[in-house]
Amino acid sequence: MNNQPPQQSDKPCCQHPRRTFLTRLSIGLSAVIGLVITLPVIGYVLAPIFKKPKEKWRAVGKLEDFKVGGFVLVQYEDPSPVAWAGVTATAGAWLRRVSETEFIAFSINCRHLGCPVRWVDDPKLFMCPCHGGVYYEDGTVAAGPPPEPLQKITVRVRNGQVEVQTIPTPLTLTTLT
Amino acid sequence: MSNNSLKRTWNWIDNRIGFTDYIVPLMVHLVPDNARWWYIFGSATLCAFIVQVVTGIGLAMAYVPGGEDTYESLKYITDIAPLGSLVRGMHYYGASAMVMLAVIHMVQVFMHATYKYPREMNWMSGVVLLFVVLGMAFTGQLLRWDANGVWSVTVAAEMAGRTPYIGPTLAHFMLGGETVGGSTITRFFAMHVFIMPAIIIAGIGLHMLLIMRHGISEMPDVNEPIDPDTYKEAYEERIQKTGVPFWPVAMWRDVLFSTLIVGVIMACSIFLGPPALDPPPNPSSINANPLPDWYFLWYFAVLSLLPPQLETWVILGVPVVGFIVLFFLPLISNKGHRAPSKRPWAGGAVIFISMAFIVLTIYGYKKPWSPDFDVKELPASVVGTDKGPLAEGAKLMHIKGCLYCHDIGGYGGHRGPELTEIGKLLTRDDIIIRINNGGHNMPAFASSMSSVELNLIVDFLLTRGVTPEEDVPKNPTQ
Question: What transmembrane ranges does the database entry give (chain A) (predicted)?
Answer without folding.
Answer: 27-50
